[in-house]
Write a structure and sequence with these properties.
Elements: E1 2-6, E2 13-17, E3 21-27, H1 30-35, E4 38-43, E5 47-51, E6 56-59, E7 67-71, E8 79-81, E9 88-92, E10 102-108, H2 113-116
Parallel strand pairs: 3-10
Antiparallel strand pairs: 1-2, 2-5, 3-4, 4-9, 6-7, 7-8, 8-9
């Protein structure tokens, strides 16, 4: 299924191909907990930035691997390049225009990221 999404003001729009039923992670790390990000990690080939590249700002911290992209107009982080899958994209399910048919939300202990990162390592690999 192709989902469409955006930031709050609509300056940044994107599409992502994912199943109708989604399994997503709710991470408790410092940045995800403060922004309410629900992670849908997909291969870059299943993500397309439709508009707003010039409206994106970037934030990196800690190791600098994760590239947190957010709209510089409204401040919403609709997607980013995650440290656990630098070859993929993590989309904030809360920014999708259409809700999935079913969504299973799994807690992820990002406060202890080094211990649990392996659980997310293959999310950006293309599947069937």
């Amino acid at each position: 299924m192709k989902y469409h999404g955006s930031c709050h003001c609509g300056a940044v729009t994107f599409s992502v191909v994912a199943p109708q039923d989604l399994e997503v992670e709710d991470c408790n790390c410092s940045i995800c907990a403060k922004t309410g990000f629900l992670h849908l990690i997909v291969p870059k080939t299943k993500f397309e930035l439709l508009s707003g590249e010039d409206s994106l700002s970037h934030y990196r911290f800690n190791t600098g691997v994760a590239d947190h992209s957010f709209c510089r107009v409204c401040g919403v982080k609709a997607f980013y390049t995650p440290r656990s899958n630098p070859d993929g994209v993590s989309v904030n399910v809360r920014c999708l225009e259409t809700a999935p048919r079913l969504m299973i939300v799994t807690p992820f202990d990002g406060q202890n990221w080094e211990k649990h990162a392996h659980k997310l390592a293959d999310r950006s690999k293309a599947s069937g």
